[in-house]
Design goal:
The complex is a heterodimer of chains A (210) and B (233).
Chain A lengths: L4 H17 L1 H11 L4 H18 L5 H15 L4 H16 L7 H19 L9 H16 L5 H17 L24 H17 L1
Helix pairs in contact in A: 1-3, 1-4, 1-9, 2-3, 3-4, 4-5, 5-6, 6-7, 7-8, 7-9, 8-9
Chain B lengths: L3 E6 L2 H14 L5 E5 L10 H11 L5 E5 L2 H13 L6 E3 L4 H13 L4 H9 L30 E6 L8 H11 L5 E4 L2 E2 L3 H5 L8 E7 L3 H13 L6
Parallel strand pairs in B: 1-2, 1-3, 3-4
Antiparallel strand pairs in B: 5-8, 6-7, 6-8
Classes of the chains: A mainly alpha (210), B alpha/beta (233).
Chain lengths: 210, 233
């Protein structure tokens, strides 16, 4: 099985649903260690993505991801805008104008997205940021894709599970990047909101392929 | 034609206010605000930044000033997507002081690199870039001494023309935005005309004395400009 633009649009639609559904939860996480706007911003950003998808339906997965990147960077407002925007943009560039995505391309796109977040935010693993969800996700995707027997669904499920575990693992960490780093030790004991929304995005990617 | 300036802030009011303040010092410089989100919330928007960069293109380059974290990331994203990213420089400088210093430098005809340096010379000592809090690191020649309210420094003019209108405007422009009383060879450092009366040529030494909360920054600011030759040959 290969992924096509229908999957991409379904993924983004499921992202919007997930952000609406988890809006309050993300706001609560961000209230604990940030400026409490993450749930609001992500919900608004992905609703804007839905509007754009309806206005100008994309023809390839790469085009869908590029439209998402530009919309999130313009509409989200907080740090998540340029970070997710860069992630989607780099993934889009990696996929180019291919109509279909195989497991290797998918894993490559996820790695490109992770690299984009690292380049833009300059955070490292363990800094209690979305990198702590994306790095294990990209590595798990690579491992399944490299195994050869993997299909796209297996790659996405592995990425989603690794991202969810990575998000949970941010709970005890002390933040070293972003708004939460101003809190120092007091940031420990709370899940990073960006890692939590990253896990939602990657779970939606798997859900759209199921 | 001058270098143009774009001010990116989470707040539309901050960006507009910084532009207004800087424009007062630099009537001929195109200074554009990109503050807040398109729907008027606190935040930064790629759309607004790219629109400002687009309007700012066609001059002698663009210097971008930003406030908190995601403003930097949004500006970097915009530069990554810009048609001609080479002509856009991102200054690591405090927004208000940096915008004023940049505007005054641009008004004086400085090129983009020099405008960026003028903005960065206005850096508050306590914030520094990243973990390096040492303000003295920006002053390799001359010395900053003293404790309490008083700081001094001695800096040799290295640019060919020495102290003339443009350097005086740059020094006075930056000093007047600081909370400090500054004397340069005995004259008021915030007074452009006072500085020009010094008639200090190349090789002359400026003796800077400063009092007040921003005294150390003021000395570093003057030192940074002098040692950069005010961006002139």
């Amino acid at each position: 099985m290969m992924l096509d633009v229908k999957w991409a649009v379904k993924w983004l639609t499921m992202c919007a649903q997930a952000m609406a559904e988890h809006r309050v939860e993300l706001i609560e996480l961000d209230r604990a260690i940030g400026d409490s706007d993450h749930g609001e911003n992500m919900d608004r950003g992905f609703q804007a993505v839905l509007d754009k998808l309806a206005e100008a339906p994309p023809e390839t997965p790469g085009a869908a991801l590029k439209l998402t990147a530009m919309t999130l960077m313009s509409k989200v407002g907080g740090a998540a805008g340029p970070l997710y925007g860069t992630a989607f943009l780099r993934a889009s560039t990696f996929l180019g104008d291919a109509a279909e995505v195989d497991p290797a391309a998918l894993a490559g796109a996820l790695l490109a997205a992770r690299d984009g977040i690292v380049a833009r935010g300059k955070a490292e693993s363990g800094d209690k940021t979305m990198v702590d969800a994306w790095t294990p996700a990209a590595e798990a995707a690579q491992a399944v894709a490299a195994g050869g027997s993997g299909n796209v669904l297996a790659v996405l499920v592995a990425a989603a599970e690794a991202a969810e575990a990575g998000a949970v693992a941010t709970d005890p960490l002390v933040a070293r990047k972003g708004r939460a780093s101003y809190l120092g030790e007091r940031s420990a004991g709370h899940r990073d909101p960006g890692a939590a929304s990253s896990a939602l995005i990657l779970r939606a990617a798997a859900g759209a392929a199921a | 034609m001058t270098v143009r300036i774009v001010v990116v802030s989470h707040s539309e009011k901050i960006a507009d206010g910084a532009v207004e303040l800087a424009a007062q010092m630099a009537p001929d410089v195109v200074i554009l605000a990109a503050g807040g989100t398109p729907d008027g919330r606190i935040g930064t928007s790629l759309e607004k930044v790219m629109s400002a960069l687009d309007q700012a293109s066609g001059g002698d380059g663009v210097v971008v000033l930003t406030d908190l974290g995601s403003a930097v990331m949004t500006a970097e994203s915009a530069m990554e997507l810009a048609d001609d990213p080479a002509e856009v420089l991102l200054a690591d400088a405090p927004l208000v002081e940096g915008a004023v210093a940049a505007a005054v430098a641009a008004q004086g005809g400085a090129d983009a690199e020099a405008v960026k340096r003028a903005a960065e010379a206005a850096y508050p000592s306590a914030l520094g870039s990243g973990a390096d809090p040492a303000p003295a690191s920006t002053v390799s020649e001359g010395s900053v001494t003293g404790g309490g309210p008083e700081f001094t420094g001695d800096f040799e003019l290295i640019n060919q023309a020495g102290m003339h209108a443009r350097p005086a405007a740059k020094i006075a422009g930056g000093i007047s935005s600081l909370d400090a009383e500054v004397k340069v060879n005995g004259v008021d450092g915030a007074s452009m005309t006072g500085l020009m009366t010094l008639a200090a040529g190349k090789g002359s030494v400026l003796h800077v004395e400063a009092w007040g909360a921003d005294a150390e920054r003021a000395v570093n600011y003057v030192g940074g400009l002098v040692q950069a030759g005010f961006g002139e040959p």
